[in-house]
């Protein structure tokens, strides 16, 4: 009996002479295997009237504020539904949100920067104070920093410290601006103790000096930048983005490839030119995952998932219009009963993060413009091992497979071929003995063994399989 533990998912590598998985669909990397991905669970009354072009969330005074933008409106979500809090916007492109204190800022690169006071307001209003039209926003040491400011693709402009509605330089004000000398268009701004300005071919760190210059701009990457603004997402000090060399991670000092020889080629081969504005990226804070959608005709249907704690990838098949890192909403049993008609009619578990106020959670909009979480029953999952010679130099007879999973009713998949240039013959086995073995009748020179768990199946881990294989003659 040979024991095979599932390795990393590396679709860019040949499946032969590799320990890497060929398929890891609707699973999440964990320390000693893979765990399931939940199905989409729609939020109560959470349907937008049109495609979501951007979304953001913040917390203030114990309440969660979730905003989403369509072609002309910004909406705020509560369990009663989406209510318009701004109309008349002139955009069909991305809208970006940025929280500042008790306010949520929004920008689309066409209209003036908008602000919503979570303590007082019932609608967004123009920020004022000389604020520029901006493509991107970030908060750095109390300053609001705008990228692609005033229609200038190379300009960074910032407000006075502690006052996002004061942008006029001079006097005691620390407001100002700086034009990048090279690097291509600005494609994103990341805030924090220092700022990161992402350009198409460069990354610049923005450090506060407090002298007449106010800020010092230091290039930390001269040849690598963010080529897809919708790909840029940040968690703590880590920023993830798509460059012209593939997927990268930046910690504020160094840029590290995370997709090279792993998923970069697969991502780019599936990405459709002209739809990069329709892609989305977000952090799943519960599972420490970067979740990215593959650009295609909106809405996209394929995702890559990256565990930045483990440095491992997987994939998922989901229909996604837009994703965001959010917070759960407070919801009482009485409110849920009123929303769904009865608790028994709910599609999401009562333990779902979407019903727990303040708990970080990944949220997304599906192809029907519905807001929700991945907290439903387990999605159908498939994991397929590398192509192996189970009896090196010989045709192997595979007599049984024992899955290493706690799934009650998995299926065993066997892909067999006579040689590397041949085509696969696929067999599916569903009968399991009392000892957990799946009897098989396969004889091939090369085989791949996979496990498939149906949608709704109750399981928590899959680790690999034991294979009973013996040599059965020359290939």
Task: Indicate the topology.
Elements: E1 2-5, E2 23-25, E3 27-30, E4 33-36, E5 41-47, E6 54-60, E7 63-69, E8 74-78, E9 81-86, E10 96-100, E11 103-107, E12 114-117, E13 125-126, E14 136-140, E15 143-147, E16 155-158, E17 176-179, E18 186-190, E19 195-199, E20 203-208, E21 215-221, E22 233-235, E23 238-243, E24 246-250, E25 255-257, H1 264-270, E26 281-284, E27 289-293, E28 300-307, E29 312-320, E30 322-327, H2 333-340, E31 360-365, E32 370-373, E33 381-384, E34 396-405, E35 411-417, E36 425-429, E37 438-444, E38 446-453, E39 462-471
Q: Biggest sheet, in brief?
A: 5 strands, antiparallel
Helical percentage:
under 10%
Structural class: mainly beta
For the largest sheet, list the strands in their spatial order: 2-33-38-35-36
Oligomer: single chain
| Quantity of strands, as a count | 39
Radius of gyration: 25 Å
CATH topology of the largest domain: Methylamine Dehydrogenase, Chain H
CATH class of the largest domain equals Mainly Beta
Beta-strand percent range: over 45%
Shape assignment: elongated
Count of spatially separate domains: 2
CATH superfamily of the largest domain: YVTN repeat-like/Quinoprotein amine dehydrogenase
Low-confidence blocks of residues: 332-341
* CATH architecture assignment name of the largest domain: 7 Propeller
Mean pLDDT: 92
- Distinct helical segment count: 2
Structural overview:
This protein has 475 residues and is mainly beta. The protein has two domains: 2-37 and 380-471, Sandwich (Jelly Rolls), CATH 2.60.120; 41-373, YVTN repeat-like/Quinoprotein amine dehydrogenase (Methylamine Dehydrogenase, Chain H), CATH 2.130.10. The chain is 3% helix and 45% strand. The protein is built from two helices and 39 strands. It is elongated, with a radius of gyration of 25 Å. It starts with a strand and ends with a strand.
């Amino acid at each position: 009996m040979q024991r095979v533990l599932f390795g990393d998912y590396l679709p860019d590598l040949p499946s032969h002479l590799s320990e890497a998985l060929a398929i890891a669909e609707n699973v999440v990397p964990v320390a000693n295997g893979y765990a399931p991905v939940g199905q989409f669970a729609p939020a109560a009354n959470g349907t937008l009237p049109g495609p979501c072009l951007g979304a953001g969330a913040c917390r203030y005074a114990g309440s969660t504020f979730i905003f989403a933008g369509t072609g002309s409106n910004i909406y705020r979500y509560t369990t009663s539904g989406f209510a318009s809090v701004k109309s008349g916007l002139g955009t069909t492109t991305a809208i970006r949100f940025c929280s500042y204190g008790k306010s949520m800022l929004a920008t689309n690169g066409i209209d003036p920067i908008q602000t919503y006071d979570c303590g007082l307001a019932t609608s967004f209003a123009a920020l004022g104070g000389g604020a520029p039209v901006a493509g991107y926003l970030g908060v750095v040491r109390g300053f609001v920093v705008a990228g692609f400011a005033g229609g200038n693709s190379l300009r960074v402009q910032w407000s006075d410290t502690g006052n996002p509605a004061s942008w006029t330089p001079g006097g005691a004000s620390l407001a100002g601006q700086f034009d990048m000398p090279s690097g291509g268009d600005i494609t994103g701004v990341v805030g924090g103790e220092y700022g990161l300005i992402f350009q198409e071919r460069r990354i610049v760190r923005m450090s506060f000096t407090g002298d007449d210059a106010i800020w010092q701009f230091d290039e930390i990457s001269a040849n690598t930048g963010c080529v897809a603004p919708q790909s840029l997402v940040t968690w703590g000090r880590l920023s993830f983005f798509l460059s012209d060399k593939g997927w990268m991670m930046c910690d504020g000092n160094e840029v590290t490839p995370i997709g090279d020889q792993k998923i970069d080629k697969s991502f780019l081969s599936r990405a459709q030119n002209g739809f990069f504005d329709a892609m989305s990226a977000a952090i799943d804070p519960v599972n420490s995952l970067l979740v990215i959608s593959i650009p295609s005709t909106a809405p996209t249907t394929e995702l890559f998932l990256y565990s930045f704690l483990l440095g491992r990838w997987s994939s998922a098949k989901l229909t996604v219009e837009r994703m965001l890192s959010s917070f759960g909403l407070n919801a009482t049993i009485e409110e849920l009963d009123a929303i769904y008609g009865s608790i028994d009619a709910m599609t999401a578990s009562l333990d779902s993060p979407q019903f727990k106020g303040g708990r970080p959670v990944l949220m997304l909009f599906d192809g029907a413009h519905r807001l929700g979480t991945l907290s439903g029953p387990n999605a159908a999952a498939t994991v397929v091992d590398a192509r192996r010679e189970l009896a090196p130099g010989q045709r192997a007879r595979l007599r049984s497979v024992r899955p290493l999973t706690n799934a009650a009713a998995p299926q065993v998949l066997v892909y067999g071929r006579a040689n590397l240039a041949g085509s696969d013959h696929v067999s599916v086995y569903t009968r399991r003995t009392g000892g957990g073995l799946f009897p098989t009748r396969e004889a091939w020179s090369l085989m791949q063994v996979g496990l498939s768990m149906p949608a709704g199946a109750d399981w928590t881990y899959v680790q690999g399989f034991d294979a009973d294989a013996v040599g059965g003659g020359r290939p």
